[in-house]
Amino acid sequence: MAGRSAFVPDMSTPHLSLADLKALVRTVPDFPKAGIQFRDITTLIGHHQGMAASVHHLAAMAGTSGAEKIAGMEARGFIFGAAVAVQMGLGFVPVRKPGKLPIATIGIDYALEYGTDRLEMDPTAIAPGQRVVIVDDLIATGGTALASVELLRSAGAVIEHALFVIDLPDLGGASRLREAGITVRALMEFEGD
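Above: the chain sequence. Below: its structure as tokens.
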């Protein structure tokens, strides 16, 4: 095809360190309200080498945990979880907000700071006893991650590991997951909220 160049993907291993990745995360002060330091991953995922390196590091962590499937929570968990699943040659299980799946689902209601929310999934997405690793962009208070663990376990999954791009340790989510028997690992931490 004259005049058109063929796309050749770069399949080399990304060479960005975890410190390099942390530097790609933008901090937005006073969002969504005054006093909050919002950790914005859009600058990380918009940097092709940063995104590739993040997925590479997460996949390496998931590989050491014996993952047979990867699960991610809507919405940013889909970005990283699906990419990790593809890199590892595994299936991906989306944990959805209510009413998003066109089939009968199983679900769990969970408490938020000001109310409740619900997560749902396809009950046939996991075989009983299958080892599933959760991948998400950020662990803050841990409410959504804990609800996902409970939901996936109710579907028959063995959940022992959860991986995150960012941990906000001051908010206690990783500690809450550890108390539930989950090994938690993150690519980076940011102190404060």
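The first strand starts at residue 26 and ends at 29.
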